[in-house]
Write a structure and sequence with these properties.
The complex is a heterodimer of chains A (502) and B (484). With 502 residues, chain A is α/β, with parallel strands linked by helices. Chain A is built from 16 helices and eleven strands. The N and C termini of chain A lie far apart (44 Å). The termini of chain B are far apart. The chains are: A alpha/beta (502), B alpha+beta (484). The interface between A and B is large, with 45 and 28 residues.
Chain lengths: 502, 484
């Protein structure tokens, strides 16, 4: 029997709770070994039960391979050849992002055992910057869900309160960061799947501008909405992570050839003169009072720091959820057609020939939420209904995007809103799919418009984290980070335990 | 069906032609687009539709597609949009085909397929030219009880050329296809080989009472593997529809397959559901926006098309319209002719040789003209040798045959085979004397004044010399040798 791997030195464990820049500096200076950081991450995962029934953060980990990578890195660092911004840093990757030598299942039975023969551009960029991929994180099947209860491999639990969901669909990645296993994780967004779990878990989640980050290797859900995003403890960590994965990619025709600024330079930019828009549609009458209260506190902090807060309107906000639930399922119904049992993944034989095999495979391979959305998407694209649903939805989507352009053209630098309408709910508490869809009511617009948005922790409600959302114009992530750095500092001391005094 | 009844009806035909573009790589990835590689060797994550793969458009395919559209007098759209055509089929890896739908690459072109007796041109309208990708191939006869899938062809770039229902007979359809093939070949956008699958034809055919303008219910005929098969299939399907209408029946809109062996069309196994491809704009590819100046440059770079070439060749080389027609049937043959004509400065000889010896040899060898071993410059050299009487016309044909076999230059072959003309009196006298000796009866009659035997005797000398003797000199020398 194999003896258990040795535990990482206490210093490495402590380092994992420090900012990324400190981890990387220690590694570069030789004060810490990448393999110690990797061991510390696995130790932490074991300590909090991330792998087992309790948290269920990972769908796959490979300690041996991660340790091997860490050792290769050590050799490179010894020759001063690995100056990457993430040298030696353990990173977790959502399981819908293709990785070599590890499964990529999208939390679905239909891809059980599938190992991608190629790697996503974002993962290649992480590795090229010295990151060590330690595992693939749990998620709502094919990123469809807002709680990570829709995984075929069981739900993930929220490390802040294990009776509650971590949010979704990037719940596994959010829990890996919130649980202190990694400083940085990749998630993906179609309607809020990075920001909403960040909010539920009390961490930072960033969805960049559509086109800022390559989608090559991200298993498509709603192609015109999908973006890879980062989850981190601090705004600075998120800024560093985004900078590594951002940039034009010749393998993604929708990726934009726009220079990537150094987002972490916004750290000391201050907030003087910044105009913060407060869209009234995001602060409705019935908003959860604790969330409303935390948001008001954040806005007050902005004012104190010299920013101007201006009430604005995004009149088409109410349509974002209906439009989202036409566009995203339509694209999903097409994107998921390739899972047909012919070439890879699950195949369920049938007596009824080819059509029978398709039907049996897809019926067994897809869970109920995925099935629901494929049916919905197929319906809204079908000949008699295309104009009434899909085409109409695209027109309204253009109006939603125009709302953002108008409000930013009026002199507003960024918008500030709540990230979610409620704090994290208990597992099994939300049973009605439509009620679940409303979890993304404040986040979906940014995906429809393609603008960047992020969630940062702004306080707590009865011990549960509350996130505030900052939305910026296209490719203006820098100003978004500037607003986030300022708010984070203003609220310092009132974050989650372990995050005191930055 | 009575002949009279058939004559009361008119055939209405529109054609959909799929043409594979001559690119090195596939439409949306860097895999080789070559035909005939071992199964599933020209594949990558993109054309296998592995989860997470994304398409990237091949710019060369766009250039060829634009070239084809302009060669067909289409209006190229500044912005066209790729769409997904969704359906399930095992050789369709993504579950959808990337195609163009309501905003195609180009529209509103035409082809002139001939003229009426009064000289009115007969035009066939081209509705649209759009880009799309090919699917893979299902192989049903390789493994017992199982179907194998070869995805080498998946993602190969195609254009679909959709005509208006402007053709009125199988012959019209044949003329349209031959001209279309000629133009696409001349413009260099495709290999246009039906055998290699780089040109595929589907036909929409309906019948209506002659003199009416309303379109009848059409059927789509597939599975035709040559132009003559298209013509036969159209006639058979038209006859079937007319018989049906004559007997009081109605034509059902359906897909028919041509069975060449039986000479009949039969319904394809109908799928129960009607096709709903659920087209929507391809979100992985931005709209294709073309710089119209670039489009104009592509247009200017299109090589000369058959019509223009025919007209020019009649003028430049003073050849007949019929010869020009024959020569331009293939781009390669007309280019070969022009090269020989220019290099030899003798268009008439070039025409005779290209239409005669070269055509025969190329057909016999079964190779395309650009792989023919006798290069135009070498043939021109041979023609020069004939004109300058270095070789006789008879010997030239032997030289040419050896050139086809060996690929060697004309002068070298003539020297090696000893086929140059011999004008040396001693040698000629020797041959003449031998002929006179060997044919005493003819020689005697000739001497006695039967001068028409001169030709026979000269012919025998030519034969003895294996064509090398200079016939003019033999004619001069023969009378004095006979008297000697």
């Amino acid at each position: 029997m194999k003896s258990p791997p040795p535990r990482a030195p206490a210093s490495a464990a402590k380092l994992l709770s420090r900012p990324l820049t400190e981890c990387v500096a220690s590694v570069r200076e030789g004060a810490a070994l990448p393999s110690d950081l990797v061991s510390a991450a696995f130790d932490r995962a074991d300590d909090i039960g991330a792998g087992g029934e309790s948290l269920n953060v990972f769908l796959a980990t490979d300690r041996d391979r991660a340790t091997g990578h860490a050792q290769e890195l050590t050799a490179l660092i010894g020759r001063a050849e690995a100056p990457g911004n993430l040298a030696g840093v353990p990173v977790a990757v959502k399981d819908n992002i293709a990785t070599l030598n590890m499964p990529t299942t999208c939390g679905s039975r239909i891809l059980e055992g599938y190992v991608s023969p190629f790697e996503a551009t974002v993962v290649r960029r992480l590795r090229a910057n010295g990151a060590v991929i330690i595992g693939k994180t749990n998620m709502d099947e094919f990123a469809m869900g807002s709680s990570t209860e829709n995984s075929a491999y069981g739900p993930t639990r929220n490390p802040v309160d294990i009776r509650r969901v971590p949010g979704g669909s990037s719940g596994g990645s959010a829990a890996a960061v919130a649980g202190g296993i990694v400083r940085l994780a990749l998630g993906s967004e179609t309607g809020g799947s990075v920001r909403q779990p960040a909010s539920f878990c009390g961490i930072v989640g960033v969805k960049p501008t559509y086109g800022r980050v390559s989608r090559y290797g991200l298993v498509a859900f709603g192609s015109s909405l999908d973006q890879v995003g980062v989850l981190a403890r601090t705004v600075e960590d998120a800024a560093i992570g985004l900078e590594v994965i951002a940039g034009c990619d010749q393998f993604d025709s929708t990726s934009a050839d726009v220079p990537v600024p150094r987002y972490e330079l916004e750290k000391n930019a201050g907030l003087k003169g910044l105009v913060i828009g407060k869209p009234r549609e995001y602060f409705p009458e019935g908003l959860n009072p604790r969330i409303a209260q935390e948001c008001e506190r954040a806005l007050e902090a902005y004012r104190e720091l010299g920013a101007k807060v201006r009430e604005v309107s995004l009149p088409n906000t109410a349509y974002s959820i209906p439009v989202y639930y036409i566009v995203a399922p339509a694209e999903a119904s097409s994107n998921l057609a390739r899972f047909d049992g012919v070439r890879y993944g699950l195949r369920v034989p049938s007596e009824r020939g080819l059509t029978g095999m398709y039907e049996a495979t897809r019926a067994r391979g897809f869970g109920p939420e995925v099935t629901r959305r494929i049916l919905l998407g197929t319906y809204v694209l079908s000949a008699g209904y295309y104009d009434a649903y899909y085409k109409k939805a695209q027109s309204v989507r253009a109006l939603i995007a125009q709302d953002f352009r108008d409000v930013f053209a009026s002199g507003v630098d960024v918008l500030f809103t709540p990230t979610t309408p409620t704090p994290a709910f208990e597992l099994g508490a939300v049973k009605d799919p439509y009620e679940m869809y409303l979890s993304d009511i404040f986040t979906a617009s940014a995906n429809l418009a393609g603008v960047p948005a992020m969630s940062i922790p702004i306080g707590g409600a009865r011990g549960l984290p509350v996130g505030g959302q900052i939305i910026a114009p296209h490719f203006a992530e820098s100003v978004m980070f500037r607003a986030a750095f300022g708010l984070e500092r203003a609220l310092a001391g009132e974050l989650l335990p372990g995050e005191k005094s930055a | 069906m009575s002949a009279a009844a058939s004559a009361d009806y008119e055939m209405v035909v529109g054609l959909e032609v799929h043409v594979q573009l001559k690119t090195r790589t596939k439409a949306f990835c860097g895999c080789s687009a070559d035909f005939g590689a071992p199964p599933n060797t020209n594949v990558c994550p993109v054309c296998l539709a592995l989860p997470g793969a994304l398409p990237v458009l091949n710019q060369h395919a766009v250039e060829l597609a634009v070239g084809a559209a302009l060669a067909l007098d289409c209006k190229v759209n500044a912005t066209s949009v790729f769409a997904r055509k969704n359906y399930f089929y095992p050789d369709l890896p993504k579950g959808y085909q990337i195609s163009q739908y309501d905003r195609p690459l180009a529209e509103k072109g035409w082809l002139t397929i001939g003229e009426l007796d009064d000289g009115t041109p007969v035009r066939v309208g081209i509705t649209r030219v759009h880009m799309e990708e090919d699917a893979g191939k299902s192989v049903h006869d390789r493994y017992a009880g199982a179907t194998a899938i070869d995805l080498n062809r998946a993602g190969v770039p195609l254009i679909e050329i959709v005509s208006e229902p402007d053709m009125r007979s199988a012959a019209d359809a044949g003329a349209y296809l031959r001209l279309l093939k000629q133009i696409l070949s001349y413009s260099g956008v495709s290999d246009v080989s039906m055998e290699a699958g780089s040109l595929r034809v589907d036909a929409n055919v309906s019948a209506r009472i002659r003199g009416t303008t309303e379109l009848g219910t059409k059927t789509e005929v597939k599975n035709m593997n040559s132009f003559s098969a298209v013509e036969r299939a159209l006639d058979a399907e038209f006859a079937r529809q007319v018989a049906l209408l004559e007997s009081g029946g109605t034509v059902t809109q359906q897909t028919m397959l041509w069975d060449g062996a039986k000479g009949e069309t039969r319904p394809a196994r109908s799928k129960e559901e009607s096709h709903d491809y659920r087209y929507f704009p391809e979100p992985d590819l931005p709209p294709l926006v073309l710089d119209m100046e670039w489009v104009a440059r592509v247009g200017r770079a299109i090589p000369e098309l058959p019509d223009a070439r025919r007209k020019r060749m009649i003028e430049d080389y003073e050849i007949s319209a019929a010869d020009a027609e024959l020569l331009t049937a293939s781009a390669g043959m007309s280019e070969y002719f022009e090269a020989v004509a220019r290099a030899s400065l003798d268009p008439k000889a070039a025409l005779n040789w290209v239409m005669g010896e070269v055509s025969a040899a190329v057909n016999a060898a079964g190779v395309p003209i650009d792989e023919f071993p006798v290069r135009p410059a070498d043939l021109a050299e041979l023609l020069r040798m004939v004109r300058e009487e270095v070789v006789s016309h008879t010997a030239a044909k032997r030289v040419f045959a050896r050139m086809v076999e060996t690929g060697k230059p004309a002068a070298q072959v003539a020297a090696e085979e000893g086929l140059q003309k011999v004008g040396d009196d001693a040698a000629l006298v020797g041959w003449i004397d031998e002929v006179l000796l060997e044919n005493p009866a003819e020689a005697a009659r000739y001497r006695s004044g039967e001068t028409k035997l001169q030709g026979v005797l000269v012919g025998l000398v030519m034969k003895k010399s294996k064509g090398r003797a200079d016939p003019r000199k033999v004619n001069q020398l023969l009378p004095e040798r006979a008297r000697a």
